[in-house]
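Extended Data, record N-acetylglucosamine-induced protein 1
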Amino acid sequence: MGSTTPLPPLSTPDEDRPYWQTNAPPSHPSATSPICPPYLLNLPPKDLVTISTPNHLYRLDTWPEVVLRVRENRLADFQRTPADMWRYLEFCYTKKEEYKDKGGIKGFILRERLKWDFPEEGDTGRKRRFGEREEEDVKVLWNDWPYGIDERIVHLVVWTKFELEDDPATGDLTEKARGEIDDYVKRTFGGRVPGEHIIWFKNWAHIKSVKAVEHFHVMLFDPDPEFVREITKGDVPLGIIQTK
């Protein structure tokens, strides 16, 4: 499904300085450098607009806007705040370099975030799916670099050791896979969060930022923090860790 990408509401590119300086952390060398860092070169138009927009001018998406976007399947319209996008691109570049001989971003996610040795030694190819050995095959973590959304919205990622089947003709989930995910979400989150405060989606293949490990997104509006700690087993998003 195609999508147009207008400027984020209330945002204006900063034309007084090079785009890579606009949202660079104040202490970062790129904040004053005349040379663009490699991870900000040749950006797609959408990312370039975001990176060029002063962070304080960016308007966060509201919960009703998030729900409508997901229901209309306009997933490509999600974007990070300018400051988070800057740090996210730097982070990905750094990790790709660090893990270039250890599986790249996939290796980093499996080793450092999921703590999965996958495929596992001795795995006989058993069929993995929701409802069976979920403690081993499914993990819920914070989205390390969430989209630019209302701060009351908790953005989680559900990672699985099994594929979530897409329809090759459309690139979207099959009805069977959609039903299985919906059942899992209701069972896992529905008992603690009102249904109208839960939305989930799986990005189209061409807009996934992490393509190598299967996952889908869950957003919760203003959930009980204790429940979030429980469901993520105390996880802390890397985007927060990196700024400390």
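Summary. The longest strand covers residues 153-160.
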